[in-house]
Design goal:
About 40% of the residues lie in helices and about 20% in strands. The protein has about 400 residues and is of the alpha/beta class. It folds into two domains: about 1-140, Nucleotidyltransferase, domain 5; about 190-370, Nucleotidyltransferase, domain 5 (2-Layer Sandwich). Helix 10 crosses helix 11 and helix 11 packs across helix 13 (about 330-335). The relative contact order is 0.12. Bound molecules: adenosine-5'-diphosphate. Adenosine-5'-diphosphate binds next to helix 10 and helix 12.
């Protein structure tokens, strides 16, 4: 069965067609800059090394989905659709089959993730129209963290805020952290129940998770994806007093939201959000770029220390996503000085450029240090197939 995985954002649609019973991607691609004059589309058939990349102005999301529909028909009938949905709130603990009732409940979550969920929902609505007879399943970014213990998910704020506004930590990137927690036992040849893992998803968005026996017991993102690590354009942890100060100084809430989501992080610190560009600037002696690298690496190191304490013993530290998988210099920077925590990197293994999961720890490192390419689409497809009873 072919499973279409859809990820609808504010101005983009990303998709992947996965075979349900195997580890194979048939087709993947994305439409970007939807509704803008300078849009692009990019796609690749499974097995092809080269993606086709074109300037293309999609008038709206529907036009982009029609394009996905056309491409999808080339590789065969779609048996199920899996939708990536950012926020599942307290209600959704795992994948759910979408019907009018779940759609209604989903709408109630919009206030918790106003920048993401409404777009995810719009994509679901259009896909239900386009494929009315195909089962569709929502897979939530928050779900893997649903069993966080109370002491990890509660904020020390008035009880009323929790009850009335849902003020608690939910965590995100769950699909990626869950994929990591599923493959690491295979890599190490040890059962999941026996393993304590720190998973570092370092992409444009970034988060860390402490995983014990296959369950997330703490994670760095909170009620929204703003908390925790420094990201491409988000600050991660800041003092809430700073925001109160800015409000008192007359900065409107919409401007705060824009600045915290789109203008902070690496971009705020040095004018670039892509770590490759930050490295290039730093190599030319740019002090702000060097500072951005230092702040980014230091924040990750702090979370490793915190999660080592949370877990008590760490069996594996895992790097994943764009930065985690590709940026050897940042991996080395992050782990500098952590030898006494049992994290010793092998510089030669760290610098090796290869595809696939690999170990990069030194021979005498008590803790495994792994690079694991994340496969969020594959994980979503697996969960869709499982939900629909197609695989165990
Ligand atoms: P997203 O969170 O948007 O899915 P990715 O996981 O694709 O992001 O990560 C994107 C980031 O990964 C880029 O912004 C860039 O900083 C970083 N990245 C990708 N490839 C490399 C590389 N070869 N070296 C360093 N950083 C890289």
């Amino acid at each position: 069965m072919n499973i279409l995985v859809l990820n609808c954002g504010s101005s983009s649609v990303k998709f992947s067609i996965q075979l349900a019973d195997g580890d194979r991607e048939l087709l993947s691609g994305r439409a970007e800059g939807i509704g803008e004059a300078r849009g692009r589309r990019r796609w690749r058939h499974g097995g092809d090394a080269e993606a086709i990349d074109q300037a293309f102005a999609f008038s709206d999301h529907e036009a982009a989905l029609r394009w996905v529909l056309e491409l999808a028909s080339e590789v065969g009938a779609i048996g199920a659709v899996g939708h990536r949905v950012v926020h599942g709130g307290e209600h959704f603990h795992g994948p759910v089959v979408l019907d009018s009732d779940t759609l209604r409940r989903l709408r109630d979550l919009d206030p918790l993730a106003p920048l993401h969920n409404p777009h995810n929902r719009a994509g679901i609505g259009m896909a239900l129209q386009a494929w009315p007879d195909v089962p569709q399943v929502a897979v939530f970014d928050t779900a893997f963290h649903h069993a966080l213990p109370e002491h990890a998910y509660r904020y020390a704020v008035p009880e009323d805020w929790y009850r009335r506004f849902g003020a608690r930590r939910y965590g995100f990137h769950g699909t990626s952290h869950q994929y990591v927690s599923r493959v690491v036992p295979d890599i190490l040849g040890r059962p999941s129940e026996a393993l304590n893992i720190i998973s570092l998803h370092l992409g444009n968005g970034a988060s860390a998770a402490a995983i014990q026996g296959g369950r997330s017991i703490d994670t760095s993102m909170g009620m929204t994806p703003l908390e925790g690590l420094v990201m491409g354009t988000r600050p991660g942890d800041v003092d809430p007093g700073l925001l109160l100060h800015l409000l008192r100084e007359g900065v409107p809430p919409q401007q705060l939201e824009q600045a915290l989501n789109k203008e902070s992080g690496l971009l705020g610190l040095c004018g670039e959000n892509d770590l490759r560009a930050v490295h290039a600037l730093a190599a030319r002696g740019d002090a702000a770029a060097e500072r951005a690298l230092a702040v980014f690496g230091y924040r990750v190191r702090k979370y490793i220390g915190a999660y080592a304490a949370v877990l008590g013993r760490v069996d594996a530290l895992v790097f994943t996503a764009g930065v985690g998988e590709n940026d050897a210099a940042m991996r080395a920077r992050i782990l500098q000085g952590l030898e006494n925590l049992g994290l010793r990197i092998d510089p030669a293994k760290n610098s090796l450029v290869t595809d696939g999961a690999r170990a990069i720890q030194a021979a005498d490192s008590p803790t495994a240090i792994l690079v694991v390419p994340t496969r969020e689409e594959q994980e979503i497809a697996r969960q869709v197939a499982q939900t629909l009873g197609h695989v165990e």
